[in-house]
Amino acid sequence: MTAVPTVRTHRLTKQFDNHIAVNHINLQIDRGEVYGLIGPNGAGKTTLIRMLAAAEEPTAGEIYINGARFLRGHNNPELKRQLGYLPDDFPLYDDLTVWDYLDYFARLYFLRDPQRSQRLHEVIELVELQQKRNEVIATLSRGMKQRLSLARSIIHNPTLLLLDEPVSGLDPLARVQVRNIIKSLQQQGMTILISSHILSDLAEICTSIGIMELGRLVESSRLQELYDRSNQDQQQLLISTLGSLEDLQAFLKRSQLVQEVELIAGVPSVRVQFVGSIEECAALLKSLIDAGIPISNFHRTQETLENIFLKLGYKQTS
Ligand SMILES: Nc1ncnc2c1ncn2[C@@H]1O[C@H](COP(=O)(O)OP(=O)(O)OP(=O)(O)O)[C@@H](O)[C@H]1O
Q: What's the structural domain count of the chain?
């Protein structure tokens, strides 16, 4: 029996006046995935996330969370209990302490003591705000505030966490901290949907990627599949030798699968554009060794998610 996906949508659509912001989207996110949603400004990511979070009513289509359907015009309390949502502009209450703020939200979810206090300790530890527990929110840095918002969105231990641009405006260290929290939540079994324009961050944490363009989901794949597909067309190899660079270059140029060989300044290495499969790549390495060329490094580089996105040719909205 196949497992029920955590999120499934069927022809999900949102129209604002004459503008279709989300257009017949069939999305599936399996349990335990970290699903990265990317796409240019105005592609419809926020609108899609808001519909999944029950913050926006769809114009048409269906949403299923863990197999149960969101009912139109119904409060869906059981389903909402399974959702955590961090919008990109959620207000914090500056005068409250970290503890009181989280306690307030825990009460909204009817968590009772001693479980409520225990859960507060857990999430405060997870987002590393133990030292700031009794500080008022106004005194926190931007990164700390974002970690606190993340703690608020998971206080009720949801199965699905929806994060809309959670790292925008954060410095590199603060982004690492948020990434680490997301990794911990995934290890605890949470399914996470995250939108971001910082593709290098998504590449670090995501298991799958969806690309939106003009309201449509134009790509939805496992991250590894995207990498494999992009590597099928062309790969870059970095090869170093202890011997003569000229011999190495001449040998490589005889291979029909090598399109270009470029010397790298200052080091005994070449950069090679290679158009073969991974097996042919292994065969190239073997042939170099068989030919007696002393190879000291042979590295097949991974295309970045950013390059894959650009190579796929997705365009900006107007
Ligand atoms: N409440 C609304 N009323 C009218 N149009 C809206 C509304 N919300 C969003 N839109 C429009 O729907 C389209 C999709 O917007 P959305 O915010 O979902 O895109 P996005 O991919 O999240 O963009 P960004 O990356 O800039 O956050 C845009 O053209 C936007 O102007």
A: 3
